[in-house]
Amino acid sequence: MSVRGAARGSALWTVVAVVAAAITLPFGESVIGVQLAAIGRTFDAGGAPLQWLVNGYMLTFATSILVAGVAADKLGRRRLFAAGLLVVGLANALAIVAPSLGWLIGLRAAAGLGAGTLLATGPALLAARFPDDDKPRARAFAAFGSAAGSGIAFGPLVGGLVMDQFGWRAVFAVYLPFIVLAALLLGRIAPSRNPDAPPIDAAGIGLFVACLGLVVLAIQGSGYTATLRAGLVGVAIGLLVLLVWVERTQTHPAVEPGLFANPTFRVMSLTMTCWQIGVAISMVYVPAVAVAGLGASPAAAGASILPMAVLLFAATPLGPWLVSRAGIRGFVLACITTMALGDALVWASLTAPAPWPTIGLVAGLSLIGLGGGTANGSMDNLAMATIAPERAGMAAGLFQTVRIGSAALAVAAAGAVVAIGHHPSESLSGEAGVTARYAMLAGVSALVMLAVAGLCLVLLQSKIRKGHPSP
């Protein structure tokens, strides 16, 4: 084979390996909602302990991205990608036979660690393999995005179908063929690293992990008093202040607080937070509510998320069009308001008699998908558009941290409210209790998103007054 042909083959196998791994990333976040009620029955658990299956994964997923991105540049991207595959594969294989809820929570946290490593190293491998900004590079990244999106769209459905036939444990086996395929192709991926990569900012990463972990613990801690929760939040705030101070003294900070001084970056970060409130909470907990609250089968519960998932794909091209027609303010207002209206419709319908809960859930999820899909097509681009090229890498890493960190907090808060699982002593348990709690959550989410939309408009108006170009 010629050198050129070998290079093309290596490029193809790199894309296939990264795409196979990418499919598993959102699957780990989205499919657990289908499993929660059954896992709760198996281990006679509910409430906060059961929610740590979600929170443990999201917390390690969010925090490992910071470490893996820098470590991959220094130690080798292929090497870290292989480590991520190993951790995800082993964690999910062992989850199939987990003997207790504690073991399962620990394995889910390990899987989140591996998933964050794959998210940080997969795109880096593609960027190294396609260094030029050309059509093959664009196609490679489009394939990565589509693969990750397919996990959102079809993860709950596939998980529900598998669970209907083989039980909740078998769902963890769905990850394994994709992980094995990627692992078999490792030898065909060219190694790459950056010998001049900056040192790992251990202090910044440690403070960020501690801050995020304390907030999640305050939200989800079982049996904690209000005083203890307030104390945990107070310590987290203190660590956040210390993080800002420490990172301002670092030459190569892991978290650059100064980027939030940029009005557009700040507004896109708030828009991303609303996206997670609307989309991530629905993705995890609508299937769970469908099973535990509406009495649906796991397969039907998995299919319940499809209206949102389809529109998350279909509405993506609307983002650039909306920005060109209505500007950033119109884009932000339209996207957030549409998602808020979707959650408001879910709230109204779940408190109404049949058949309105089902009808309203489909319509509400469709609106969330429409607003989320439109936003998803342009948030990253707008966040990066006003950042100097020499700070682009740092800004991209921080924006991904905002993406996953806000998802972790949103899902933790939702889990504390919905409390899927076994509640033998609770008076408002069973279908009515779960449905009522999720309805309340959807209503509060709608109000929060509308408030954030107003804050975004104020921030963008302030940008204009300070002499920046009109958004």
Automatic annotation (TrEMBL):
Entry keywords, A to Z: Membrane, Transmembrane, Transmembrane helix
Subcellular location: Membrane
Domain spans labelled Major facilitator superfamily (MFS) profile: 14-463
InterPro entries for the chain: MFS, MFS_dom, MFS_trans_sf, Sugar_transporter_CS
SUPFAM superfamilies, per database record: MFS general substrate transporter
Membrane topology: Multi-pass membrane protein
Example GO molecular function: transmembrane transporter activity
Transmembrane segments: 12-38, 50-68, 80-103, 109-128, 140-162, 168-190, 202-220, 226-246, 267-288, 300-323, 330-350, 356-375, 396-418, 438-460
Record-linked Gene3D superfamilies: MFS general substrate transporter like domains, Multidrug resistance protein D
Principal cellular location given in the protein's record: membrane
Domain of life of the organism encoding this protein: Bacteria
This protein's GO CC annotations: membrane
Protein name in the entry: Major facilitator superfamily (MFS) profile domain-containing protein
